[in-house]
Specification:
This protein is an alpha+beta fold and 155 residues long. The chain has one domain. The protein has 3 helices and 9 strands, in the order αβαββββαββββ. The longest helix has 21 residues. It is globular, with a radius of gyration of 17 Å.
């Protein structure tokens, strides 16, 4: 028989897992391009557990971690107090890959990272190049050569 501390611990662990999975899943599904960048470069986007599809091209993604409020604020110029959830993914989109109007995501660099942020019915996505995990802070991002661009999508 489980004692009450073990039972509470199991319940808390299960609740944390469910909350973590539901927050991570908010960016899933089909999103329409609404920002000028998204309309000119990527078109609509679709995200699943293991893939991102951009302009009918599909790429494998790996969930790295959730973003904290300060990282979301830095990467997406969002108010850290408004809520919403962010996620960092690893992916590999070759520099030669052309999307709408023969545009690339990161110029002559491979796209290695994707950060997402969902607030209400909007999805914001930022792409990054470089082998190292991007530093998502107000101090680092303005000087980073690895920031490729950000895009806004809606439902």
């Amino acid at each position: 028989m489980l004692n009450s501390m073990t039972f509470r611990s199991l319940i808390c662990s299960a609740a944390t897992l469910v909350l973590s999975c539901s927050l991570h899943a908010q960016d899933r599904g089909y999103w329409r391009a609404i920002s000028n960048n998204a309309k000119a470069i990527t078109g609509d986007i679709s995200i699943s557990d293991t893939r991102v599809t951009i302009n009918f091209y599909s790429y494998t993604i790996a969930h790295i971690r959730a973003l904290n409020a300060a990282e979301v604020a830095a990467a997406f110029d969002a108010d850290a107090s408004t809520g919403g959830n962010g996620t960092l993914y690893r992916l590999n989109i070759p520099a030669e890959k052309r999307f709408l109007h023969k545009n690339t995501l990161c110029g002559t660099s491979d796209t290695q990272w994707m950060a997402t942020y969902v607030a209400g019915r909007e999805l914001k996505v930022a792409f990054f190049s470089g082998d190292s995990v991007p530093v998502l802070s107000m101090e680092a991002l303005p000087n980073s050569m690895e920031v490729c661009g950000s895009f806004t999508y809606g439902r």
